[in-house]
Amino acid sequence: MARLKTLLARPGVKFILRTIFYFLVLLALVYLYSYSGINNSKFIYNEF
Predict the structure, then answer these.
(1) Membrane-spanning residues where (predicted)?
(2) Is residue 5 packed enough to be buried (19+ CB in 10 Å), middle (13-18) or exposed (0-12)?
(3) Do the domain assignments include residue 1?
(4) Are 8 and 14 in contact (CB under 8 A)?
């Protein structure tokens, strides 16, 4: 446990872990945006 704390205290490791975390969040947002079907929009007044 102490070795993990010393490893996480290094600035390079913090930077890499934060970069991976933000990349995963960005991928999740892109996936959710594509899943929502924004590009397949239908005409809103289809029944009139």
Answers:
(1) 20-38
(2) exposed
(3) no
(4) yes
